[in-house]
Design goal:
single chain, 143 residues, alpha+beta, 6-stranded antiparallel beta sheet, 37% helix, Sensory transduction regulator, Put_sensory_transdc_reg_YbjN
């Protein structure tokens, strides 16, 4: 496991935070560690991961909706995602190759320190944003 992940795990352990499970893929050149969790929005558990590796970047990835994009909603979903991407600086939406809607929040971590309080603040920001937008997102997906 990389130093950043060790430091974040120490933060979680010291505060007895059990919201995360840890996955460390074997034989990974960047020594990636994945902290899995969920954000609850309007009663729906939305999976998230916090990825830490040897690069200067950390990533909070939120899995908004699997197979969200289809022929019927493609244009409207792209418009909504683009609007959110132009509006919010701290994170970016995208649609993966399977048509799933994801939200990434990039964190710059130039050394081995991971400020757990800042990471939690980012999770709260994502949660607050989704509390405001999730219903609109799902209306577009289900249309």
């Amino acid at each position: 496991m990389n130093k950043k992940a060790e430091n974040f795990k120490k933060f979680l352990d010291e505060r007895t935070i059990t919201d995360f499970s840890l996955d460390v893929p074997e034989e990974d050149q960047l020594h990636t560690a994945i902290f899995r969790s969920n954000i609850t929005v309007n009663g729906t558990n939305i999976p998230t991961i916090f990825i830490l590796d040897d690069s200067i970047y950390g990533m909070i990835r939120t899995f908004i909706a699997p197979k969200a994009q289809n022929e019927k909603n493609m244009e409207t979903l792209f418009q909504l995602v683009n609007e959110y991407n132009m509006t919010y600086k701290s994170f970016k939406y995208f649609i993966d190759n399977d048509g799933s809607l994801l939200l990434d929040t990039c964190v710059i971590l130039p050394n081995d320190d991971v400020d757990g309080d800042i990471i939690y603040a980012l999770y709260r920001t994502i949660s607050q944003h989704l509390e405001e937008t999730y219903k609109d997102i799902m209306k577009v997906i289900w249309a």
